[in-house]
Specification:
It is a single chain. By secondary structure, the protein is of the alpha+beta class. The chain has 13 helices and 15 strands. Helices cover 40% and strands 20% of the residues. The radius of gyration is 34 Å and the shape is extended.
Length: 497
C-alpha cells in the first residue's frame, strides 16, 4: 500500500501531526521560544512617553508603543539536553572496517566509510535524532561507482503501512521567469515487489501547500537543470535500501519521540521567571535622582521661558544652584530587590528538567564534574552515560545496517560478489581518561590475552595512520623475536654428590 499525495496538503496524514511536533521541538532546540510560548507575547510590547520637538522652542510629550522583545530572556537548557549525548557518542565512535582480514569487502567498506564520513557527521545525526525523535538514512551510488550512505531528516522518511516500502519525500522551490517561487514535491519511492526492489522517482506540482498532479520528471529535470535518477528494478534484493533510527519508541509511538518532550513547560517557566526579574531590573534597577521641589520648579520654569513647555531634563541638573536655607542636596535613590527566592526557584526547575531528561547535573555544569580517575568520573556522569549508551547501541545497529545495504547495492548495480555482512565498529570510552590510566588498562588487556596487539596499539594511538600502526606492530614483533635469540645463561645450582 503506497502513500497518496495528490489533492491534499503535504505531509499527508498520519505523518502531518508527527512533522508538526518535529517543527515545534526544532524551535525549542534552536531557542526560538518567543514564537512558541504564549507568555512571551505578554512582554512583546510596552508603552513609553517621549518628548518630541514640534517647533524651534516647543516640545510635546507623546505616547509610543515600542517593541521590547529583547526583554524575553531565553536560557535554553533544551539544547544542552540534546547535545550532551551527541558529545559523548561523537567522542566514542572509532574505526569502522569490514569483518574480514583481507579481500574485496575490506577495501569496499573502507571506501564507503571514506565517502560517507560517519565520524564527521555523527554529532549532527545524534543531535537531530534527539530533537526530532527520528532520523533516516539511505544508500546512494553515482555513475562513477562511488557508493555511500547519508543521513536525512525524519520529516522526509515516510514508511508504507504494509511494511514493504518507504517514501523519501522533500520539497524543492524554484523561481519562474518573473521571479515568482514555484514549489514541487520530489519523491523517491522504494517498494518490494515479486521480482526484487523497485525504486521510482516521482515529481508533483504544489500549489499553496497542497499537492497537485504529477508532472513529467524528464521535463522537470531539463527545465531546472537537476539530475533525477532513472527508475530501476533491482532483482533479488529483498530489503529496502533505506531505514530509520528511532528514539524512545513505544507501541503507541513506533516512529519514536523527541528527547525534549515533557520538558518544554519547565523550559518556559525558567524563561518566564528570569524574564520577570529582568523586567523589574530594567524598570527599577537604574538609580534615580531625587531633587527638592523648589529646584524642580525653578528648572521647569526656566524651560517654559526658553522652550515654551514645563519639563526637566537630566542635562538641566548637571550644574544647579544650591540654597543653603531652603534647598536640600539632590540624592540618588537606588532600588534593592530581594531575588534570592527567584534564583532558587530557577535552580529547582533546572534540576527537575535534568532529572526528567535523564541528564546528569555534572554534565550540565551545575555541580563539579571532575573525578580523580576515569571510574570516579563515570559515576559522576552515570545518568548521562547510561542514556548515551542506549542511543549508541541504536546508532551502532543503524550504521552497520547502512553499510551492509551499500554492499547489497554494489552487488545489484555494480556486478560485484561481495559477502554481505555487517562491518565492525570500534567504540571507545565516552568520558576522558588520563593517558597513563588508559595505557595501563590497554596493556593489561593485551598481557591477559583478551586483546590483540593490533587493537592495543590502535587504541593507545587513535590518531595514528594505518601505516604508522603497522610499523609500530612490526617493531614490537621484531623486538620480541630478537629477545628470544639472546637467552640469559645462568650457572646450575651447586649440589653435593
Amino acid at each position: 500500500m503506497t502513500i497518496v499525495y495528490t489533492k491534499q496538503r503535504f505531509p499527508p496524514p498520519p505523518f502531518d501531526q508527527e512533522v508538526a511536533l518535529m517543527q515545534y521541538y526544532r524551535a525549542l532546540y534552536e531557542g526560538d521560544h518567543a514564537e512558541i510560548f504564549p507568555r512571551a507575547g505578554k512582554v512583546s510590547k510596552d508603552i513609553v512617553f517621549v518628548n518630541k520637538r514640534v517647533g524651534v522652542k516647543t516640545w510635546k510629550l507623546e505616547k509610543q508603543v515600542v517593541d521590547v522583545n529583547r526583554l524575553y530572556v531565553v536560557v535554553n537548557f533544551c539544547s544542552l539536553v540534546a547535545e550532551i549525548p551527541a558529545d559523548l557518542i561523537n567522542r566514542a565512535l572509532g574505526n569502522i572496517s569490514a569483518d574480514a582480514e583481507e579481500g574485496p569487502e575490506l577495501e569496499f567498506v573502507s571506501n564507503v566509510v571514506a565517502a560517507s564520513k560517519p565520524n564527521e557527521k555523527i554529532w549532527a545525526a545524534v543531535t537531530q535524532h534527539q530533537v526530532d525523535g527520528l532520523i533516516g538514512y539511505r544508500v546512494r551510488r553515482d555513475a562513477k561507482g562511488k557508493v555511500w550512505f547519508e543521513w536525512m531528516l525524519g520529516d522526509r522518511y515516510f514508511p508504507h503501512e504494509d511494511g514493504k516500502g518507504a517514501d523519501i519525500a522533500w520539497i524543492e522551490t524554484w523561481k519562474d521567469k518573473n521571479g515568482q517561487p514555484e514549489s514541487y514535491l520530489r519523491v523517491e519511492r522504494q517498494q518490494l515487489v515479486d521480482d526484487g526492489l523497485s525504486v521510482q522517482q516521482l515529481v508533483y506540482k504544489m500549489d499553496d501547500g497542497a499537492v497537485g498532479d504529477e508532472v513529467d520528471k524528464a521535463a522537470y529535470a531539463e527545465r531546472f537543470s537537476v539530475e533525477i535518477p532513472d527508475d530501476v528494478l533491482l532483482p533479488g534484493v529483498t530489503e529496502l535500501l533505506c531505514g530509520a533510527i528511532t528514539n524512545d519508541e513505544t507501541l503507541l509511538h513506533p516512529r519514536g519521540r523527541s528527547a525534549l518532550r515533557n520538558i518544554d513547560g519547565i523550559q518556559e517557566e525558567i524563561n518566564w521567571t528570569i524574564t520577570r526579574d529582568s523586567i523589574v531590573f530594567e524598570k527599577h534597577g537604574k538609580p534615580k535622582l531625587a531633587i527638592p521641589k523648589m529646584l524642580w520648579e525653578t528648572v521647569a520654569q526656566n524651560n517654559l521661558r526658553d522652550y515654551g513647555s514645563r519639563f526637566v531634563r537630566n542635562a538641566d541638573l548637571e550644574v544647579v544652584s544650591y540654597d543653603e536655607n531652603k534647598g536640600a542636596i539632590p540624592q540618588y535613590i537606588t532600588w534593592d530587590a530581594k531575588t534570592q527566592q527567584s534564583f532558587e526557584h530557577v535552580t529547582r526547575l533546572i534540576k527537575y528538567m535534568l532529572a526528567i531528561s535523564k541528564t546528569s547535573p555534572q554534565a550540565a555544569g551545575l555541580e563539579d564534574g571532575r573525578g580523580d580517575s576515569g571510574v570516579a568520573l563515570l559515576y559522576l556522569w552515570i545518568q548521562s552515560v547510561i542514556k548515551a549508551e542506549a542511543i549508541k547501541d541504536k546508532f551502532d545497529a543503524g550504521i552497520k545496517d547502512a553499510i551492509r545495504k551499500c554492499m547489497i547495492l554494489e552487488n545489484a548495480l555494480g556486478g560485484a560478489s561481495l559477502n554481505v555482512a555487517n562491518p565492525v565498529i570500534e567504540w571507545g570510552n565516552m568520558l576522558p581518561k588520563a593517558d597513563s590510566e588508559k595505557d595501563t588498562e590497554e596493556i593489561a588487556k593485551y598481557e591477559g590475552g583478551v586483546q590483540s596487539l593490533e587493537t592495543t596499539v590502535r587504541r593507545m594511538h587513535p590518531d595514528w595512520s594505518e601505516e604508522a600502526i603497522e610499523a609500530e606492530i612490526q617493531k614490537i614483533q621484531d623486538e620480541k623475536a630478537a629477545d628470544t635469540l639472546n637467552p640469559t645463561y645462568t650457572q646450575p645450582p651447586r649440589v653435593m654428590v
